[in-house]
Amino acid sequence: MSFLPRLFLRPSLTSLAGPSRIPIPINLSSSFSTSSICSVKQKLKSHSGSKKRFFANANGMAQTGKSHLNTAFSTGRINRLAKSVYVSKTQGRRIKKMLPYA
């Protein structure tokens, strides 16, 4: 079995039970400052496409319509697109994940 690389050999139980393999618990709070990298929570990124299309209001999320490149539309359709509309409950959950700080 010596011709096989070490990656393919199964470790024996005696090699794992040695004193060098025992994990030592480390208490980070006593030896390091409290402003360590571990305690800082990362900021979430907002979805850039959602920022342009949705906004938060008091009752939940609202959806804005189209405001440019609408010369080919009829006037009735342009007036409908100018209004804001509430999103559904399931869409609101997804949008809240995409806009975490809205």
From TrEMBL:
MF terms from GO for this chain are:
structural constituent of ribosome
GO CC annotation, single: large ribosomal subunit
Keywords in alphabetical order: Ribonucleoprotein, Ribosomal protein
Query: In which domain of life is the source organism classified?
Result: Eukaryota
Kindly list the biological process annotations in GO that this record carries: translation
Supply the InterPro entries for this chain. Answer: Ribosomal_bL35 (IPR001706), Ribosomal_bL35-like (IPR021137), Ribosomal_bL35_sf (IPR037229)
SUPFAM superfamilies from the xrefs? L35p-like
Q: Which Pfam families match?
A: Ribosomal_L35p (PF01632)
UniProt xrefs under Gene3D superfamilies: 4.10.410.60
> Which PANTHER family has this protein been placed in?
54S RIBOSOMAL PROTEIN BL35M (PTHR33343), LARGE RIBOSOMAL SUBUNIT PROTEIN BL35M (PTHR33343:SF1)
Family designation: Belongs to the bacterial ribosomal protein bL35 family.
Descriptive protein name: Ribosomal protein L35
Species in which this protein is naturally found: Kwoniella bestiolae CBS 10118
- Taxonomic classification: Eukaryota, Fungi, Dikarya, Basidiomycota, Agaricomycotina
